[in-house]
Write a structure and sequence with these properties.
The complex is a heterodimer of chains A (about 70) and B (about 190). Chain A has about 70 residues and is an all-alpha fold. Chain A contains four helices and no strands. Chain A has one domain. Chain A has helices at about 1-15, 15-45, 50-55, 60-65. Chain B has about 190 residues and is mainly α. Chain B has a single domain, classed as Double Clp-N motif, CATH 1.10.1780.10. Chain B has ten helices and two strands. The longest helix of chain B has 18 residues, at about 170-190. The N and C termini of chain B lie far apart (about 40 Å). The chains are: A mainly alpha (about 70), B mainly alpha (about 190). At the A-B interface, helix 1 and helix 2 of A face helix 5 and helix 6 of B. Chain A: Keywords: DNA-directed RNA polymerase, Transcription. Chain A: It holds the Pfam family HTH_23. Chain A: It comes from Streptomyces rishiriensis.
């Protein structure tokens, strides 16, 4: 957590263009990481509820994003 | 919007969707449009690429570089550099994730081909390419949107596709020259 805060602060200190680019890139990286971990959890039989609890979001949010309809 | 697309431009859009389906992904990205443009033969884009030396092995090199970018979570080198400024080593992260989850884990390829039966959505960057291709065609007074306009739009996107193209000598400037500036050369020669 402190590391994430630290990163966020340093991102704010930089030249806006580089800083914003870093934020956008980080978001993309985060999205892919989340997808990898959610898929892995599902393959190991985790419920949407369990995954949502670990991610700190609602079950609906995670299911809507990754569930198949 | 698609009614103004030429046969080749439509084939690019269809080809991009097919790439996504084959990979078991959900979203059509600019990268997929680029891969689909590379597949065209006898089109204006393929002639433009050929006159910039992107044929055969160079085409393969573009494909490899796109695949490399996708493996890096779709981050361009410029993105990775920006993150490196924050002390984040993208290559290291990708390597560690791949160690546990397999090669290509960060590429967005779901690895469960065909199971996602929903309709493929165009991602924001791919939509941007379509919009810019329309603007480019209008700006040049072209009545139809061809695959060359899609290629031109891909060079100004700022992501992996634009970076890879630039690395292979395909920039908005060089493309505009071969597509629109070539006439003068021929006129002089004649």
């Amino acid at each position: 957590m402190t590391e994430a805060t630290d990163l966020a602060e340093r991102a704010g200190d930089r030249d806006p263009r580089v800083g914003l680019r870093a934020v956008a890139a980080l978001r993309r990286l985060l999205e892919q990481l989340e997808a990898v971990q959610v898929r892995s959890a599902r393959n190991q039989g985790w419920s949407w509820q369990e995954i949502a609890a670990e991610l700190g979001v609602s079950r609906q949010a995670v299911h809507k994003k990754y569930g198949r309809h | 919007m698609f009614e103004r697309f030429t046969k080749d431009a439509r084939a690019v859009v269809r080809g991009a969707v097919e790439h996504v389906e084959r990979a078991g992904e959900r979203t059509v990205d600019a990268d997929h449009l680029l891969l689909a443009v590379l597949e065209r033969e006898g089109s204006r884009a393929s002639f433009a690429l050929a006159s910039l030396g992107v044929t055969g092995a160079r085409k393969e090199s573009v494909r490899d570089a796109v695949a490399e970018g996708r493996r890096r979570a779709g981050l361009s080198r410029a993105d990775a550099d920006a993150l490196s400024g924050l002390g984040i080593d993208v290559a290291e992260i990708v390597a560690r994730v791949e160690e546990v989850h397999g090669v290509g884990a960060m590429s967005g390829d779901r690895g469960d081909k065909g199971r996602w039966s929903g309709r493929r959505a165009f991602g924001r960057d791919a939509k941007g390419v379509l919009e810019r291709s329309l603007r480019t065609a209008v700006a040049h007074g072209d009545r139809h949107i061809g695959d060359e306009h899609l290629l031109l739009a891909l060079t100004t996107g700022g992501g992996v596709a634009a970076e890879v193209l630039a690395d292979h000598g395909v920039t908005h400037e060089s493309l505009t020259r071969v597509l629109y500036g070539g006439g003068e050369g021929r006129a002089k020669a004649g």
